[in-house]
Amino acid sequence: MHTLADPSLLAPSTVDPPALASMAARMRLRMGELGRLMQGQALFPVFQPIANAEDGSVYAHEALIRGPVDTPLHGAEALFRVAREEDVVIDFELFCVELALSHWGRLNQPGRLFVNISAGALVQVVRKRGRNTLIDYVRGFGISPRMLVFEITEHERVSDMAALVAVVQEVRSTGAGVALDDFGDGRSSLRLWSELRPDYVKIDKYFSKDISLHADKLQTLRALKQIAVVFGTVLVAEGIETEEDLRVLRDLCIGYGQGYLLGRPAREPRLQIRDEAMVALSDQRVTVLPELRRASHAGRLRSLSIMHAPTVSPQTSNNDVEAIFHAHPELHAVAVVDEGRPVAIMNRQVFMQHYAQQYFKEIFGRKPCLLHANHAPRLVERDHDVDDLVGILTSQDQRYLVDGFIVTDNGRYVGLGTGEQLVRSVTEVRLEAARHANPLTFLPGNIPISQHIERLLQGGAEFVACYADLNSFKPFNDHYGYWRGDEMIRLVAKVMVAHCDAQRDFVGHVGGDDFVILFQSSDWQPRCERIVDEFRTLALALFDEAARLAGGIEAEDRDGSLRFFPCTTLSIGAVRIRRGACQNAEEVATLAALAKHDAKRAGAGLLVRAG
Prior knowledge:
single chain; alpha/beta; Alpha-Beta Plaits; 8-stranded mixed β-barrel; 24 helices
């Protein structure tokens, strides 16, 4: 077996990977810049840990190539750029594999080793060497094949999928594993995942970096988890650099992680991850996941009822239109369609008023119907979001509300929608959206609140559930109007968010002036007191000077009697939720609501109720 000091590393050999290439390729290696670095033993591998995202134990290491320190060719990207320029990419890849195996074998470390190799290089090695030779080759470095994972890096689209699938099966038969690198970077496809059925898929760092801040990335990882279950694949999230991201990945139950926070690439493998990462993983508090602030697609027209009404052509006579309306009394309108594309809409009431006029039938009955049609109908694609159609409701041209709208699919007529249906659909979509994110404060609504409580209960976390409500808010809102009332509600949200730990404490808006905070911060009580005090001070600015001097306003109470109401303040009812004390979110919500009731009745800013 060759050693790193062996000058024959670049010469033909029965075990040396570069010997698989042509004589011309070997000559280019010897003569080029990379060849000189290889012969001078200036290249070396480094190893970066891959850790269990649940307990932090080091599961494996990935081998990476490095060039001379403090030179332009230190990084792998620069080295492979030179390899492409010198047309020796595969030969250089195979050299890097051997270098990594040689070092790892001598280190005699536990755990798996991930080595990078392109699909082309892997196919070449297995086809020319065969399964048994590959086993002997790996064992020759003192490494068991079952502790080796070939990490397929795709720089180009796979040209021969069948060949790669066959080679991957051969590799697996040796006991070695297969990983797909950088999934989601645009070069690794879902088809490749499906065809190869790799043991591991490494998620590109784009999706894991700052995942604690981006709900769309969170949803993408959730989808990838579902795919991984289907294919029996273990996920490895790359690019973990912050404690917040690590905790999110832990709570998502992503199998393994890799990144600078866990450990940087080094010549010596790490026996354990960095202390900062272990502290983050040991933190038993449940992470507050970022929430999507957009409505779901439940409000798209494709999911709604559409009236599949008959149509007329531009040449259809007025008499024929009258016959259609007579045969279909439920029709509010009829679309004028020319070769599948709608060009106008005819309102039933408008048309029948004209048709009923004296002599209309005799003069215009046989003439084309376009005379009394609306030539600027509202056209809506089936995949259009209903919420975006609110412009129809607020338009000064009320014909759109009376005529309704024409539904199209790729520009072709599908059916009709009514103004009444539009009002109902927009209302339903907005109500559903508000359950996910309050439209006034953009804080999570009822559904995300319940989901987070369930996560806390399932995770065995101990937390404090707080229910907050404004005192004397209705008189304020009645006295100053809804515009200033909305400002006060937004102020509550702003103050709460400012005094909560975004990674530990969940702030939700139930609706109106009701808010929920789910605290995992140990200093939750002083945080609540600061919220109450700061809101009391800032809320005064929303009253006029006379009210501030008087300490409140005169307004009607619920019985219609005029009386004095003090300036608006905030009451918070808090209850500690011990492990195992509640079985579901409803029980937690009930306890928090009782605590709020006690706080308001006592006139206290903060009241802690026994759980």
